[in-house]
Amino acid sequence: MSQSVLTTKRDPFRWLKVSIAFLSALAFLFPIVWMFFVSMKPEGTAASSAIDWFLPPYTFSNYVNIIAGSDVFLWIWNSFFVGAVTTLLTLVLTSMAAFAFSKMRFRYRKALYLFFLAGLMVPGEAMIIPLYEIVGSMGLLDTYAGLILPGIAAPLGVIILKSFFDGVPNELIESARLDGCSDFRLYWSIVLPLAKAAVAAVGILTFIGSWNNFLWPYLAIISEALYTLPVGIPMFNSNYSETYILPMTVNAIASLPVIIAFLFFEKQIVKGVSFSGIKG
């Protein structure tokens, strides 16, 4: 420990790294701070310069008007419900598939796993039209099921979990099988608990992807009662295109659950991004 402290003190560029990190943090935080300041300005406020957005007067009447006159909480609930169910189903299916590929032996196992790898190379936009036709033929358009079921196919989750399941010693698996442990018991009681970090990472990434998904809900949903946040906010903004204040207030309200969730699950989110190799 003392050696690491000395190494840190001897780093001649430490001040430069800290300064760059601090400035980068300010650059990312500035739009969020600006959004909340704008959301508290009286409706119809004009700004002659950027600094005027941060100066008084302030009011919370915009929040009261939005809560009373819009369906923003319904959109938040829809996004949360769809995200939670999608995440739960995705974790069940991906973890079972990953366990099968990692710890079970069956014909064409490697060939099937290549199909999962190939799934990462297909752009989501390329599957929109056939997906829309399939869901429409099943009568699931404009339903919660139509929003949820297409999102549970997650080849990336299978790949991440398989890499962690591969790290579980095969000797442990074989000894458990000799004791009469079934495959499901191996999956549920031995392998899955050892990969809690990976499961949490896949779950967080899945929920974030569902929460931010715009294209598929926009195409699959007609009823306003089923709007999710990414669909509801642009619809609201189109009705208030001549002003900044109310659309910014809606965005501020919609951002609060995500900001709170990030504060509670910061380590898991960062770990999930590092596991998947996704940046941004």
TrEMBL record:
Its main location: membrane. One of its GO terms (biological process) is transmembrane transport. GO terms for cellular component: plasma membrane. It comes from the Bacteria. The keyword Transmembrane applies. Keywords: Cell membrane, Membrane, Transmembrane, Transmembrane helix, Transport. It is a multi-pass membrane protein. Residues 76-265 form the ABC transmembrane type-1 domain. Pfam families: BPD_transp_1 (PF00528). The chain crosses the membrane at residues 20-38, 74-99, 111-132, 144-165, 186-208, 245-265. It is found in: Cell membrane. Belongs to the binding-protein-dependent transport system permease family. This is Sugar ABC transporter permease. It comes from Alkalicoccobacillus plakortidis.
